[in-house]
Structure formats: structure tokens, C-alpha cells
Amino acid sequence: MSELDQIPPSTGPQGGISTRSGVASNERAAFGLPGVPIFFAWLVLDALTILAFAREQLILSGLLLLVVIAVVVGFYIVQPNQSKVLTLFGRYVGTERRNGVYWTNPLTVRKTISLRIRNFNSERLKVNDASGNPIEIAAVIVWRVVDTARAVFDVEDYTGFVAIQAETALRHLASQYPYDDYAEGSMSLRGNADEVSEALRRELGVRLQHAGVDVLEARLSHLAYSPEIAGAMLQRQQASAIIAARSQIVQGAVGMVQMALQELSEQNIVQLDEERKAQMVSNLLVVLTSERGTQPVVNAGSLY
Fold first, then answer.
1. DSSP states along 60-122
2. pTM exceeds cut of 0.85
């Protein structure tokens, strides 16, 4: 369990989870008026300001000019798949996710947060697997922001937070599984890629929920033994493959010998005693399991 998981959440004024400073970290909609009607009203104010200045009504024209400037400052644009986080005098007032032109309190501070899907390609990490073997591992994380309030106020830098937590989760994952499945029935990094990726995605989802980030997918992009043991591990893999292949060859050869003896007996082609059967089995196994082509010796005389 990480240090973040051990921090008990507290209930904020909106019923959500709040930070230690009292700022509600659950996202809510911001107050924003449609920008187009406000824009036409601003044009009318411009005209009135020019008219008052032309009539030398300096006080009225000055007041109208201040209103015009305040209205202009209140405009903001939200692009597709972006949002604006609004704060007023250090207090979070809401998030605007609707696309278009809007107007709000000109004293608010607006910060743009992207809602687009992003990729994070981790560096190749050198870690020890569950068996203690040094390996190199890397992953690709697909993520996006789903709670802008948490992303802005609960962590210092949510993009850096994603990078650090992804590296931490990847190191923890590599230590939970062996590189290869030497014990039958156990999970391994190489043999259970889908299960390992799903485990990584779940762990990252728990770690990154503090930053309002949703992990869509997590996949291993690189997995290999470290160079200092790669040669020895390659020989071990080759030996395992040879043993597995030999086992399959022997099983097939035994089946073929059994079928040959059964066919000879059922069709009554020749009667063989136990000694001749043993010799025949030995000869067939040599022929069937040999790595090279055999050179049979044909006996042109009697059977015995």
C-alpha cells in the first residue's frame, strides 16, 4: 500500500473528498453566460461610450469605459476536449466543460486543462523480478483527466504525478511476477501479458485517482533480461524448449509403436514373442526419436 492510500479522506462541503486545506476536490460546473449575447451588449456599450465622449461627458464616458473593459476581460473560449478551471480570490468556483464562447465574473482566474487522451511511454527500467533476476521493463500508459479539480488542486503537477506513479507501479508489478513460467500453472511477465497488463492498469487506477486521472489502458512495451544474464537465460530457455520438444516426440513415438503392434496382432500378419516385440519396440523408438535419418540393416535371411 502506498503512502497516498494511507491518507484518510475527509468530507468536504459539497459531500465529496476534500484536501487538508479545505478546498473541495470534486469537480462541479462553473457559472458562465453565453458569450454571443454578451458580445452584442458589449458593442452597444462601446457605442454609448463613444457617444458620451463625443458629447464631452467625460465622467459618464469614463465609467462606461471601465464597464467595457470589465466586460471584455470576462470573455473566455473553451476549445473541444478542453476545460477551464475557474478560481475567484483563491477559491475554486467551478469548471466549464462546454465548448464555445462564455462570459463570467471578470475577476476570476481561468486555467486551461486538456481532456484529451494522452500517452505516456515510460523509460526502460532495470528491476528484479519475483525470482531475483535483473530484467528491463517499460510500459505505455493511456490516460486522461476526468476530474479537473483534483488534477489542479490535489497534486502539484498532474503530468509529473502520472509519470512518477507509473514508474512506481511498474517497478512494483515487476517484483510480483517472474519473467518466465518455470513452475507450471504460475503467472509470468512473458507468458501472461494480458493478465499482467490488466494488473498494471488496476494498480495505476488506484494510484492516480488522487489526481483525477483515469487510466484507459496499460501495456508492456519492452520486456527483456538484463544484458549481464541474457546469455545464460537464453540457454535455459533453449534447454526448456528442447526438453518440451523431446517429450512430445517420445509421446508420439510410443503411440506409433503401440499402434504398429496392435495392427500386427489384429491382422495376424506375424506372431512375435516377447523378446522380438521388445527388439521391435527398441528399433522403432530409435528410428522415430533419432535426430538424424537412420540407416536400417535389411535381413534377407530368416527371421531368427
1. HHHHHHHHHHHHHHTEEEE-TTEEEEEEETTEEEEEE-S-EEEE--TT-EEEEEE-S-EEEEP
2. no
